[in-house]
């Protein structure tokens, strides 16, 4: 097996192609990783959530990362990590960005399912959506092949 670094264009292509990743955040020296649905465009990752631990933690420490991958086998895979800064898209300050987040996420299939399922599992009926974006600081990727 050979592992090579991916170009920024190859990393962007994977972020464009997939819509499920793992969001990493931390607070008080404790890491936390959760699956999220997202949409990518150059410079930003957009997502929907509901209030909970990850939002609480990202408000305290806005430095986050998103990991995505595609795997054909244990020896053929690609993975990308985007690091950046969390930003809530609240009204009225970020009205234009919020509308854009809804539009770009709306192009993805089932983009709203994970946050709603989390709240249903917690026995909550009322769900207040919370849109956010990650301003990307860096993107790196690796590709494994035979």
Describe the structure.
This protein is of the alpha+beta class and 146 residues long. It has a single domain, classed as Pnp Oxidase, Chain A (Roll), CATH 2.30.110.10. The protein is built from 4 helices and 7 strands. The chain has helices spanning 8-17, 53-60, 95-106, 113-121, and strands at 2-5, 20-27, 30-41, 44-49, 63-73, 76-88, 130-145. The longest helix is centred in the last third of the chain and has 12 residues, at 95-106.
What are the key terms here?
alpha+beta, 48% strand, Pnp Oxidase, Chain A, single chain, 6-stranded antiparallel barrel, 146 residues
Element layout with pairings:
Layout: E1 2-5, H1 8-17, E2 20-27, E3 30-41, E4 44-49, H2 53-60, E5 63-73, E6 76-88, H3 95-106, H4 113-121, E7 130-145
Antiparallel strand pairs: 1-7, 2-3, 2-5, 3-4, 4-7, 5-6, 6-7
Q: Domains counted in the coordinates: how many? A: 1
Radius of gyration: 16 Å
Helix/sheet category: alpha+beta
What's the N-to-C terminus distance? 5 Å
Task: Give unreliable regions as ranges.
Answer: none
Mean pLDDT: 89
Name of the CATH first level: Mainly Beta
Q: The CATH topology, please? A: Pnp Oxidase, Chain A
CATH homologous superfamily assignment? Electron Transport, Fmn-binding Protein, Chain A
């Amino acid at each position: 097996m050979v592992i090579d670094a991916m170009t920024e264009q190859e990393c962007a292509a994977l972020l464009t192609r997939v819509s499920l990743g793992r969001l990493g955040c931390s607070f008080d020296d404790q890491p936390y990783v959760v699956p999220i649905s997202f949409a990518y465009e150059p410079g930003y990752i957009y997502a929907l959530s509901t209030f909970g631990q990850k939002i609480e933690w990202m408000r305290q420490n806005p430095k986050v990362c998103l990991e995505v991958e595609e795997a054909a086998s244990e020896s053929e895979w690609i993975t990308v990590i985007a690091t950046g800064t969390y930003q809530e898209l609240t009204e009225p300050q970020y009205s234009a960005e919020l509308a854009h987040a809804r539009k770009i996420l709306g192009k993805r299939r089932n983009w709203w399912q994970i946050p709603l399922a989390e709240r249903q599992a917690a026995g909550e009926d009322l769900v207040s959506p919370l849109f956010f974006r990650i301003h990307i600081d860096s993107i790196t990727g690796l590709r494994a092949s035979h």
